[in-house]
Design goal:
two-stranded antiparallel ribbon; globular
Length: 187
């Protein structure tokens, strides 16, 4: 809990829009963790209601985003292009982890029989590296959710939006969410 609080606090210090980025991930993923709890309990012997996370899981999901937020904080005087790239890295990081979380939480219970991403052999639901078409679709949607939310907030509060349109935000976020389910699952 302390590690999550630290990551959130750093994002708040950097700026309101960064806090909303991490909250979009945290709130939506926490909700997705609770969806289908009974079915997950039957599939996973170590399933915990509410998806309690330890410090290593928080570092895995928020570590890169927090480091990028710190770089943004230190680099406030950098030119707009550098800040744009850092902001894009920040939001795309949360697209990756949100897409992966949504895919693993929803794909394992609604996606049918998964296939191992490396060999395409059928594996039991909940197996690391197992993917379903539904899970891949949900990973795209999970990534899009973060970028749409981030785009709307940055468009409302400042004149330096990260994306030129909501559609562009959805596509970029979806791609990173989709890729996140492969990158994270493959090792």
């Amino acid at each position: 809990m302390i590690s999550g609080w630290i990551a959130g606090t750093i994002s708040v210090i950097v700026g309101f829009e960064y806090m909303t980025g991490i909250l979009a991930f945290y709130i939506s993923s926490s909700y997705m963790t609770k969806v289908g709890a009974e079915k997950k309990r039957k599939q996973e012997e170590d399933y915990k209601v509410g998806g309690e996370r330890n410090v290593f899981q928080v570092l895995a999901t928020c570590g890169v985003g927090t480091i990028v937020a710190l770089i943004i904080l230190i680099s406030r005087s950098a030119d707009n292009k550098a800040l744009y790239i850092l902001r894009l890295c920040y939001v795309c990081h949360y697209c990756v982890v949100n897409g992966d979380t949504w895919a693993s939480e929803l794909g394992s219970i609604y996606g049918g029989i998964p296939r191992l991403v490396t060999t395409m052999k059928k594996v039991p639901p909940g197996t690391n590296g197992g993917v379903t078409l539904f899970g891949l679709f949900v990973s795209f949607v999970g990534g899009s959710f973060v970028t749409i939310w981030f785009h709307l907030i940055t468009s409302l509060i400042n004149s330096f939006p990260t994306f030129s349109s909501c559609f562009e935000a959805a596509i970029i976020g979806g791609i990173f969410g989709f890729l996140g389910s492969f990158v994270i699952l493959s090792y």
